[in-house]
Design a protein that fits this description.
With 98 residues, this protein is mainly alpha-helical. It has a single domain, classed as Arc Repressor Mutant, subunit A. A two-stranded antiparallel sheet has the order 1-2. Strand 1 and strand 2 form a beta hairpin.
């Protein structure tokens, strides 16, 4: 489809209809994290378990998990509190948090 026939919000975009750097659309990694946490509600995942599940065959640090969780929470808005952490253990999806 030629760019001129696309709605204005999609013209000049590089990914998923975004034209600005800010977007509420989760990245693939953020989506994979959310999907894993939702599929296993209440189960606490250590950072290493999240790395092994989401970043397969990629070398990342624990800090990478924290940064992606923070970005995901910002995009979830009022549902950010549903992604909870148990200090010293890891992250989990808490249905009761909202």
């Amino acid at each position: 489809m030629p760019a001129s026939t696309l709605p204005a919000r999609y013209r000049g975009s590089t990914r998923e209809g975004r034209t600005s750097r800010k977007s509420n659309t989760p990245t693939r990694t953020e989506f994979d994290l959310l999907q894993l946490l939702l599929a296993n509600r209440g189960q606490v995942f250590s950072r290493q378990e999240l790395i092994d599940s989401v970043w397969q065959d990629v070398v990342v640090t624990d800090r990478t998990v924290d940064v992606n969780i923070t970005r995901l929470r910002k995009k979830l808005g009022p549902y950010a509190s549903n992604i909870a952490n148990r200090q010293g253990f890891g992250y989990y999806f808490d249905e009761k948090a909202s």
